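hey
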C-alpha cells in the first residue's frame, strides 16, 4: 500500500514529508531548551534576581486586585518596584541577542514542523457536504454592531447583488420576531450580521424550523466566527455561504431554555458584566468589583454544583460553561474551541483563595500546566446544574442576565444546519494548535516518525 493511501478505517500512514516534519519538531524543541539552559547558567545571578522579582510582582499584583485603599496603593508600589528589578536583571544579564534569536527560531521551527506532521487531525475535525443555493435567503442585520460594520461594508448593497433579502434591525423591533417573520414569508436560509448574542437568537429560530444558518462576522469580537474557522475580517466574503457554500451540523447549548452559542459565566466575571458602568469603564469596574470577590473579607460565592466525580462543591470564584469545550490549558488556542459538534458542554470552575494560590496558578498557567492547579476543574458533560440560595447574575454570550436557581445547562447535538463559504478554512485556532510540551503531542509526533497514525490506529510500514 502506498505511503499516502487512506485506510478503510479513515486513517492513513504518514507521508514522508510528515515523518520528516515530526522528526524536526522533536529535535528542534530540545535544542532550544538546551540553548536556553546554557545561557541561563552563564547568568545565574541575574536569573535568580529576575525569578525573585517575578514572584514578588505576582504577589503584589494579587494584593492590588484583592485589596482597596492604602493597601492597594502599597501593593501597587511593590509590584512596580518588582517590575523595575525584573527589567534591571534582564539588562545586567547581558543577554546574547544571537542566542535569543536562535532559541526563538528553534521554537518556531519546532511548532511549524509539528503542525505539518499533525495537520491530518485538523482536516478531519468536521464533516461538510455541498449545499445547494437557497431560493429565498434572508440576512438580518444589526446596524449598530461592531461600530457600524453593516454600513461600513455596504452589506445591504452586497446582499442585493447576490439576491439575498437584507432585513435591518430597527430600534424597538424584536430580533426573534423579525426572524420568525422572515421564515413565515418563505425564507429557506437565515443569516445574521451582528454580535454573538444576536447569532444565538437567529440560530435558534433557524434550528427550530430546520433551515440552514449563515454567520456574518459583523460584531465586535465574533468569537463564534473564529471557532468556526471563518475569517473575521472578511465580512463580505461571509455572504458567499449563501451562494457558494458547504453545510455541516453543529451543536446549540441552552441555559434555562435560552440558547447560547459561545459560553455562559457565573461568579466574578458575571458580576462585573452586570455593573451598569461596565460598558463605559471596563477596567475600572473590574478593579472595583474584584476585592468584593477575592479580598480577605469576601464571602465565598454561593455557587453549588456537582463535580465530574460526584463531589459536591459549595463555591467557586468562576464558573464557565461553553457550547463545546474550550482549549484553556495552553497559550496557543486560548479561548477557542476545537470543534462545535462534540455533543458536549465544556465546564470550567476556578477557585483562588489567597496570594500563594494566585502565584501557583500564574506559574502553572504560564507553563501550560493549568490542570495541576488544585482550584481548577475542567470537564465535559451533557447536562450541568448550578444551585444557589438566591437569584444568580449570569453572563450569556457577554450579555448580563439574572436567573432564578437552579441554573440548568444542556446541549442539543447537531441542532443547527450551518452554512459556511466554500473558501473558508473551517478550522478554529484550537483545531490548528500544537502544544509542544504536552505528552499527547509528543506521543503523536513519535508515532508519525515511526510511520503510524498519531492516534495509534495505523500500523508500521
Amino acid at each position: 500500500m502506498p505511503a499516502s493511501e487512506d485506510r478503510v478505517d479513515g486513517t492513513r500512514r504518514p507521508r514522508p514529508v510528515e515523518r520528516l516534519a515530526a522528526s524536526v519538531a522533536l529535535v528542534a524543541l530540545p535544542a532550544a531548551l538546551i540553548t536556553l539552559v546554557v545561557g541561563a547558567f552563564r547568568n545565574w545571578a541575574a536569573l535568580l534576581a529576575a525569578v525573585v522579582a517575578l514572584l514578588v510582582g505576582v504577589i503584589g499584583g494579587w494584593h492590588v486586585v484583592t485589596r482597596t485603599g492604602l493597601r492597594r496603593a502599597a501593593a501597587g508600589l511593590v509590584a512596580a518596584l518588582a517590575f523595575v528589578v525584573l527589567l534591571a536583571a534582564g539588562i545586567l544579564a547581558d543577554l546574547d541577542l544571537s542566542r535569543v534569536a536562535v532559541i526563538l527560531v528553534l521554537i518556531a521551527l519546532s511548532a511549524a514542523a509539528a503542525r505539518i506532521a499533525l495537520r491530518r487531525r485538523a482536516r478531519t475535525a468536521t464533516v461538510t457536504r455541498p449545499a445547494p443555493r437557497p431560493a429565498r435567503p434572508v440576512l438580518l442585520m444589526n446596524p449598530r454592531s461592531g461600530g457600524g460594520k453593516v454600513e461600513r461594508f455596504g452589506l445591504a448593497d452586497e446582499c442585493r447583488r447576490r439576491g439575498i433579502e437584507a432585513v435591518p434591525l430597527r430600534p424597538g423591533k424584536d430580533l426573534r420576531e423579525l426572524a420568525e417573520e422572515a421564515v413565515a414569508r418563505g425564507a429557506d436560509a437565515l443569516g445574521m450580521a451582528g454580535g454573538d448574542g444576536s447569532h444565538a437568537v437567529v440560530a435558534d429560530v433557524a434550528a427550530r424550523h430546520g433551515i440552514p444558518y449563515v454567520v456574518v462576522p459583523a460584531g465586535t469580537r465574533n468569537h463564534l466566527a473564529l471557532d468556526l474557522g471563518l475569517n473575521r475580517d472578511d465580512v463580505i466574503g461571509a455572504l458567499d455561504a449563501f451562494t457558494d457554500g458547504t453545510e455541516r451540523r453543529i451543536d446549540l447549548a441552552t441555559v434555562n431554555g435560552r440558547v447560547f452559542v459561545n459560553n455562559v459565566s457565573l461568579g466574578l466575571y458575571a458580576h462585573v458584566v452586570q455593573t451598569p458602568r461596565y460598558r463605559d469603564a471596563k477596567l475600572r469596574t473590574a478593579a472595583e468589583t474584584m476585592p468584593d470577590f477575592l479580598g480577605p473579607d469576601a464571602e465565598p460565592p454561593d455557587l453549588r454544583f456537582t463535580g465530574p466525580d460526584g463531589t459536591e462543591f459549595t463555591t467557586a470564584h468562576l464558573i464557565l460553561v461553553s457550547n463545546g469545550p474550550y482549549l484553556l490549558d495552553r497559550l496557543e488556542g486560548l479561548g477557542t474551541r476545537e470543534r462545535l459538534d462534540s455533543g458536549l458542554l465544556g465546564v470550567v470552575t476556578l477557585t483562588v483563595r489567597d496570594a500563594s494560590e494566585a502565584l501557583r496558578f500564574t506559574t502553572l498557567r504560564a507553563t501550560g500546566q493549568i490542570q495541576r492547579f488544585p482550584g481548577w476543574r475542567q470537564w465535559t458533560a451533557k447536562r450541568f446544574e448550578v444551585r444557589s440560595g438566591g437569584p444568580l447574575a449570569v453572563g450569556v454570550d457577554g450579555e448580563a442576565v439574572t436567573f432564578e436557581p437552579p441554573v440548568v445547562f444542556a446541549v442539543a447535538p447537531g441542532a443547527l444546519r450551518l452554512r459556511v463559504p466554500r473558501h473558508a478554512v473551517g478550522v478554529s485556532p484550537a483545531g490548528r494548535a500544537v502544544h509542544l510540551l504536552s505528552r499527547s503531542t509528543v506521543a503523536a509526533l513519535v508515532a508519525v516518525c515511526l510511520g503510524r497514525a498519531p492516534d495509534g490506529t495505523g500500523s508500521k510500514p
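The CA atoms of residues 2 and 13 lie 8 Å apart. DSSP finds 16 helices and 19 strands in the chain.
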